[in-house]
Amino acid sequence: EAQVTQNPRYLITVTGKKLTVTCSQNMNHEYMSWYRQDPGLGLRQIYYSMNVEVTDKGDVPEGYKVSRKEKRNFPLILESPSPNQTSLYFCASSLLGEETQYFGPGTRLLVL
Amino acid sequence: AQTVTQSQPEMSVQEAETVTLSCTYDTSESDYYLFWYKQPPSRQMILVIRQEAYKQQNATENRFSVNFQKAAKSFSLKISDSQLGDAAMYFCAYRYNNNDMRFGAGTRLTVKP
């Protein structure tokens, strides 16, 4: 089944404790992206990648890192999480030239 | 920068009735894509319908249809014969040239039995 997977789905952590949210897709998509969803703001892009080893900042990149070492994986790293990073996070992917993005199930993060 | 505005934070509809969700956007581009996504309580983002800006014909998917007014930069979603399962948050989104997708703030739809 074609899908985007994210792990973990739920995470509670404390300020300053490094964490990684994994994202993987099995559709051979070049484009991958991370969004955060906050009430009243919709989804906002954090980082995106057009292909392996090619990443760029979105609208809200502060406090986040990403890497794209393999085509299928695009992990989101929070080196020192803070409470304002409490949010619902989505990974998405698409083929280059195809405008429809496919979303993972979301990861709900709470930073205490 | 492109922006997407959904002016209705909440809407409600009676089961079997029709409801229209509004969306406007701002862009200087002529060739782009517009989307409506549904987010049920499970939080999954589900594509409802998409529209290519170069197509004049409005997209339709079963009970879901859009009214795309390119000159007015308006992209509304009409849900006919509303069902209880249509209750969700609906997001309007814009995408141009493989760049990031811009989302509106969302409209929460309630369906009354």
Itemize the secondary structure elements and their pairings:
The complex is a heterodimer of chains A (about 110) and B (about 110).
Chain A: E1 4-7, E2 10-13, E3 19-25, E4 31-38, E5 42-51, E6 54-57, E7 65-66, E8 76-78, E9 87-94, E10 102-103, E11 107-111
Parallel strand pairs in A: 2-11
Antiparallel strand pairs in A: 1-3, 3-8, 4-5, 4-9, 5-6, 7-8, 9-10, 9-11
Chain B: E1 3-5, E2 10-14, E3 19-21, E4 24-26, E5 33-39, E6 46-52, E7 60-61, E8 64-69, E9 74-79, E10 88-95, E11 102-103, E12 107-112
Parallel strand pairs in B: 2-12
Antiparallel strand pairs in B: 1-4, 3-9, 5-6, 5-10, 7-8, 8-9, 10-11, 10-12
Give the key terms.
heterodimer; A: 112 residues; mainly beta; seven-stranded mixed β-sheet; four-stranded antiparallel β-sheet; 11 strands; 0% helix; 51% strand; B: 113 residues; 12 strands; globular
Figure out the total of helices of chain B: 0
For the sheet with most strands of chain B, the description reads: 6 strands, mixed
Helix count of chain A, per DSSP? 0
Tally of extended strands of chain A?
11
Largest sheet of chain A: 7 strands, mixed
Q: Structural class per helix/strand content of chain B?
A: mainly beta
- Give the mean pLDDT of chain B: 94
Q: Gap between N and C termini of chain B, in Å?
A: 41 Å
Percentage of residues in DSSP E strands of chain A: over 45%
Strand runs of chain B, count: 12
What report would you give on this structure?
- The complex is a heterodimer of chains A (112) and B (113).
- Chain A has strands at 4-7, 10-13, 19-25, 31-38, 42-51, 54-57, 65-66, 76-78, 87-94, 102-103, 107-111.
- Chain A is mostly beta strands and 112 residues long.
- By secondary structure, chain B is mainly beta.
- Helices cover 0% and strands 51% of the residues of chain B.
- Chain B has strands spanning 3-5, 10-14, 19-21, 24-26, 33-39, 46-52, 60-61, 64-69, 74-79, 88-95, 102-103, 107-112.
- In chain B, strand 7 (60-61) and strand 8 (64-69) form a beta hairpin.
- The termini of chain B are far apart.
- The A-B interface holds A 31, 33, 35, 40-45, 48, 50, 58-59, 88, 90, 92, 94, 96-97, 99-103, 105-106, 108 and B 4, 6, 9, 33, 35, 37, 42-45, 47, 50, 52, 91, 93, 95, 98, 100-101, 103-106.
